[in-house]
C-alpha cells in the first residue's frame, strides 16, 4: 500500500465550467470518475412562468419544457440513440416484485456508498487532519484517538468545512464529530469541538462475532418483511449521555420548570462497545422498512434502535395550493430516447442526475414512458389505482419532478450546491408508493424518496412542493450534518426539512427558478405551514417553547416545532399581543424579523458548516449565532435577531439591546371588591421596544385567588378613545371580567383549563379619562387550592 500516487482530473459543473485539479495521496488515489461526474448533457428548454401564465393550456397538466440531449444526438429533428447507462439498465429491467423502488434498491445503496466516499475525498485536507490529530492532546485525547474526513463543504469564500469521524484504537466513535474550518490551502482557521466526545474508556475486544449481532436483530418486532440486503454490521463505540442541570450538576428529571435550554448540559456517563447493524427489508404498510440497531458486543442485548427513514406524517390535502397540481402549467426536464422506431420521453433528469418514477410499473412501461408529446399529467388529484388513467398517474410524476428540480435549482443558484452531496448525487424519487400510503419518506441507506398517494380523502397530498422539498432536506442533511444522534437532534432534523420546504415555497412563489435568482424572494413569502403534515410555524401546534420534557416527546416531528417557531420569528416577526400564538413570554415586546432570505442563509450555513450529528437546541443556537456573525457581523441586526428568535423559544438569552421588563406589581389584600380594588401602577413602553401591534403602555400584575378569596379587583384609568386590553395567564383555571365605571361588565373571558383569557374595553372618545375595573375570578379545579395568575394590563 506504500508509495505516493499522483492523479489529475477535470470535471464539469452545472454551469459547464471545467474544473481541474491535481493531488498527491498516500496509497491509491480515488479515481477521477469518483471525484466528480465529468459530463453533463445539453438541454433543450423553454421555461414557462407559471405565475404569469396560469392555465395556459386548458386540460393539459404539466408540459416538459426541457429534454436532455445525450451525446451524439441532434438537438432537433433526429432520432436519439444514446445507450443506456448501467443505472438505466437496472431501471429498465422488468419487475420481479412489482415495485420499482424495491427492485432498484441494490443499485441505489451502491450509488449512495460511492457518493459518501466521494464526499470524504479531499487531499488538500490531509495535512490539516494530521495537525488536528497531533494536537488533540489539548482536548484530553491520547494517541489512541485518530480522525478521518467524513464530508467537506466548500463555501463561497473557498474555505473548507470538514466534518471528521473519530476513532479510538481504530474503532469509530458514534456521535463524536469535530469540524475543521480551513482556508483554501488547507490551513486550519477554526476547530469546532462541541461535538467531540473525549471521555472514552472501553474494552475494545468484543465477545460476540458479527454474525451473532446479525442474528440478534432478526427477531426485532419491526422486521416483518423480506430482507432486501444482508444487514450491514460495524463494530463501534457508543458514548451514552445523560442531561444535567449545569449550575448544580443535578441529574435532569425532565419535569423541571423555568429552565432555559442553556441551563442544561449533556455529559457522557458511559461508553459501550456495540455492533451497529443496519437493516433494509420490504415494508408492511409502507414500501421499505429500514432500521439501525445497536447490539452490545459483549452481551448481545439490543440496547438502542431507530428508523433509518425520515417521514412527513399527518393529514393531507387533496389540493396542493403551493405546488403545481391543479394550479399552473409548469416546465419540467425529461430525457428523450428512441424505442420501437419512435421517440419517447422518460421522467429522468440527466442534467441534475435523478429521476421521478411511478413505482407501480417498470421504467419503460405505463406512466414512466410518455410516448411522443412530452406532456405529463392531467391537473387532477390521483384517482386511485382502480380508475387512474396513465395521464392521471403522470401528474404525481410531474409534481415530483417539479418539486425536486426547483429545490435542486434553488440550492444551485443560491448556495452553489449541486445535489445532496454537491456532486450531482443521483437520489431518485418514487411516486404512487404502496397503496393509499399516507406518507412520504427519505431512506438513508439508499438516498431515495418514496411518496405515497395519501388515503382516499387525502389524495396527492404528499406531492406538494413543500413536502417534496422537505424530503430533499433530509437528503441534504444525510450528506452534511447528519442530525439525529440525540432526541432533540431528531427534532432538528425534521425542523431542517420543514424550513427547507418553506424556503423552496418562497423561492417558487417569488419566481426564483424562472428568474434564476441567487437569493430567496421575500415576497409574497411562503405559507409557513407544511401541507402534508399540518405543522404550522406560526402556532407551533402549541409546542412553542423548549422545555426539559421536549426530548421525551414520542414524535420527532413534535420535537421540531419550537425550531420551526423560532425560524418564523427570525424571518418574520413575533408580536406583543399575549393571546396570539406568535407571542412569546420570553420576548414580550415582540421582535422584528430579518426576512426569509437572510434567515435561510444563516440556517443553511449552520447546517452545511457547523451542525454535527449530535447537535441539540442549545448548540443549534450557538452555531446559528456563529453563522450570522460570519455573514453579517457580530452585533449586527441579523446577529441580534438570531439571539432573540432562539430566546423566544426559551433557548438562550435575548440580545443585549432588547428592552427590559414592563412595570410590575403584586396584588395587595384585601382587594375583593370594587371599593377595595388595587390601583394598577402606571405602565410604560421601554425605549426601543420592537412592538409589533398596537401597544402604548403595559403593566404586569401578579396575584392569587382561592376558594376563601375568590375575587381580586383592580382599577385603572383609561384615556379617552383608548382601549384597555387585559390578558390573564393563569397557572390553573381562572376567569376574567372588565367592568366600566357604571358597573357594567363590558367584556368577559372564561376559557377552560389553563388557556389564556383576554378581555377588552374601549373608553368613549369624549376627551375625559374613564375608570375601569378588572376582576380575576377563582374557578374551582380538582385538587387545586391556590390559583396563581399573571395579568398583562395593556393600553392600546
TrEMBL record:
GO BP annotations listed: proteolysis
GO molecular function, one term: metal ion binding
Peptidase M4 C-terminal domain mapped to chain residues: 487-651
Coiled-coil features, chain-numbered ranges: none
Alphabetical UniProt keywords: Hydrolase, Metal-binding, Metalloprotease, Protease, Signal, Zinc
Domain FTP: 146-188
Domain Peptidase M4: 360-476
Taxonomy, superkingdom: Bacteria
Name the UniProt record assigns to this protein: M4 family peptidase
Amino acid at each position: 500500500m506504500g508509495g505516493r500516487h499522483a492523479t489529475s482530473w477535470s470535471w464539469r459543473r452545472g454551469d459547464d465550467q471545467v474544473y481541474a485539479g491535481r493531488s498527491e495521496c498516500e496509497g491509491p488515489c480515488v479515481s477521477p470518475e469518483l471525484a466528480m461526474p465529468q459530463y453533463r448533457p445539453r438541454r433543450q428548454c423553454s421555461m414557462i412562468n407559471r405565475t404569469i401564465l396560469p392555465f395556459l393550456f386548458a386540460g393539459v397538466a404539466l408540459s416538459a419544457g426541457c429534454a436532455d440531449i445525450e451525446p451524439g444526438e441532434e438537438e432537433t429533428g433526429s432520432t436519439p440513440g444514446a445507450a443506456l447507462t448501467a443505472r438505466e439498465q437496472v431501471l429498465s429491467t422488468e419487475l420481479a416484485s412489482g415495485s420499482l423502488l424495491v427492485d432498484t434498491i441494490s443499485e441505489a445503496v451502491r450509488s449512495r456508498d460511492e457518493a459518501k466516499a466521494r464526499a470524504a475525498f479531499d487531499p488538500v485536507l490531509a495535512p490539516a487532519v494530521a495537525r488536528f490529530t497531533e494536537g488533540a492532546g489539548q482536548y484530553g485525547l491520547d494517541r489512541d484517538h485518530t480522525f478521518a474526513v467524513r464530508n467537506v463543504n466548500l463555501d463561497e469564500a473557498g474555505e473548507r468545512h470538514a466534518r471528521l469521524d473519530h476513532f479510538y484504537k481504530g474503532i469509530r466513535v458514534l456521535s463524536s464529530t469535530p469540524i475543521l474550518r480551513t482556508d483554501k490551502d488547507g490551513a486550519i482557521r477554526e476547530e469546532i469541538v462541541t461535538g467531540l466526545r473525549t471521555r472514552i474508556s472501553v474494552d475494545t475486544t468484543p465477545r460476540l462475532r458479527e454474525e451473532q449481532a446479525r442474528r440478534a436483530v432478526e427477531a426485532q418486532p419491526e422486521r416483518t418483511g423480506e430482507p432486501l440486503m444482508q444487514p450491514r454490521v460495524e463494530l463501534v463505540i457508543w458514548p451514552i449521555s445523560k442531561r444535567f442541570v449545569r449550575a448544580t450538576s443535578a441529574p435532569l428529571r425532565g419535569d423541571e420548570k423555568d429552565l432555559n435550554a442553556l441551563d442544561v448540559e449533556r455529559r457522557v456517563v458511559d461508553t459501550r462497545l456495540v455492533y451497529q447493524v443496519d437493516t433494509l427489508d420490504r415494508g408492511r404498510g409502507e414500501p421499505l422498512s429500514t432500521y439501525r440497531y445497536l447490539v452490545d458486543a459483549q452481551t448481545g442485548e439490543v440496547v438502542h434502535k431507530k428508523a433509518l427513514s425520515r417521514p412527513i406524517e399527518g393529514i393531507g390535502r387533496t389540493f396542493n395550493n403551493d405546488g403545481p397540481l391543479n394550479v399552473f402549467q409548469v416546465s419540467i426536464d425529461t430525457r428523450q430516447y428512441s424505442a420501437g422506431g419512435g421517440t419517447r420521453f422518460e421522467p429522468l433528469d440527466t442534467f441534475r442526475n435523478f429521476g421521478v418514477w411511478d413505482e407501480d410499473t417498470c421504467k419503460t412501461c405505463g406512466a414512466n414512458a410518455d410516448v411522443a408529446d412530452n406532456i405529463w399529467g392531467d391537473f387532477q388529484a390521483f384517482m386511485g389505482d382502480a380508475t387512474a388513467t396513465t395521464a392521471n398517474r403522470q401528474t404525481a410524476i410531474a409534481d415530483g419532478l417539479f418539486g425536486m428540480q426547483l429545490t435542486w435549482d434553488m440550492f444551485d443558484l443560491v448556495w452553489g450546491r449541486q445535489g445532496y452531496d454537491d456532486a450531482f448525487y443521483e437520489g431518485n424519487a418514487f411516486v404512487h408508493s404502496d397503496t393509499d400510503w399516507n406518507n412520504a419518506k427519505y431512506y438513508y441507506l439508499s438516498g431515495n424518496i418514496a411518496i405515497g398517494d395519501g388515503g382516499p380523502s387525502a389524495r396527492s397530498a404528499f406531492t406538494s412542493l413543500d413536502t417534496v422539498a422537505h424530503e430533499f432536506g433530509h437528503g441534504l442533511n444525510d450528506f452534511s450534518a447528519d442530525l439525529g444522534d440525540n432526541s432533540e437532534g431528531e427534532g432538528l432534523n425534521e425542523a431542517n426539512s420543514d424550513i427547507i420546504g418553506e424556503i423552496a415555497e418562497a423561492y417558487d412563489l417569488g419566481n426564483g427558478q424562472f428568474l434564476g435568482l441567487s437569493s430567496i424572494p421575500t415576497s409574497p413569502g411562503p405559507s409557513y405551514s407544511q401541507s402534508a403534515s399540518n405543522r404550522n410555524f406560526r402556532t407551533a401546534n402549541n409546542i412553542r417553547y423548549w422545555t426539559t420534557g421536549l426530548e421525551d416527546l414520542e414524535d420527532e416531528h413534535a420535537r421540531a416545532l419550537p425550531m420551526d417557531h423560532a425560524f418564523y420569528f427570525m424571518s418574520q416577526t413575533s408580536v406583543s399581543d399575549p393571546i396570539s400564538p406568535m407571542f412569546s413570554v420570553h420576548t414580550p415586546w415582540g421582535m422584528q424579523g430579518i426576512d426569509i432570505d437572510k434567515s435561510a442563509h444563516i440556517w443553511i450555513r449552520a447546517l452545511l458548516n457547523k451542525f454535527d450529528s449530535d447537535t441539540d437546541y442549545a448548540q443549534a443556537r450557538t452555531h446559528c449565532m456563529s453563522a450570522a456573525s460570519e455573514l453579517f457581523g457580530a452585533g449586527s441586526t441579523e446577529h441580534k435577531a438570531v439571539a432573540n428568535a432562539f430566546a423566544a423559544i426559551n433557548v438562550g438569552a435575548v440580545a443585549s439591546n432588547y428592552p427590559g421588563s414592563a412595570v410590575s406589581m403584586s396584588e395587595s389584600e384585601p382587594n375583593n371588591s370594587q371599593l377595595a380594588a388595587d390601583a394598577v401602577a402606571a405602565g410604560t413602553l421601554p425605549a426601543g421596544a420592537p412592538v409589533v401591534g398596537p401597544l402604548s403602555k403595559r403593566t404586569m400584575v401578579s396575584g392569587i385567588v382561592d376558594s376563601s378569596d375568590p375575587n381580586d379587583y383592580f382599577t385603572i384609568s383609561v384615556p379617552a378613545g383608548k382601549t384597555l386590553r387585559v390578558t390573564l395567564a393563569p397557572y390553573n383555571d381562572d376567569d376574567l371580567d372588565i367592568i366600566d365605571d357604571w358597573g357594567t361588565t363590558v367584556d368577559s373571558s372564561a376559557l377552560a383549563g389553563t388557556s389564556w383569557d383576554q378581555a377588552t374595553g374601549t373608553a368613549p372618545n369624549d376627551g375625559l379619562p374613564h375608570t375601569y375595573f378588572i376582576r380575576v375570578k377563582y374557578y374551582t379545579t380538582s385538587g387545586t387550592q391556590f390559583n396563581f395568575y399573571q395579568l398583562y394590563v395593556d393600553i392600546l
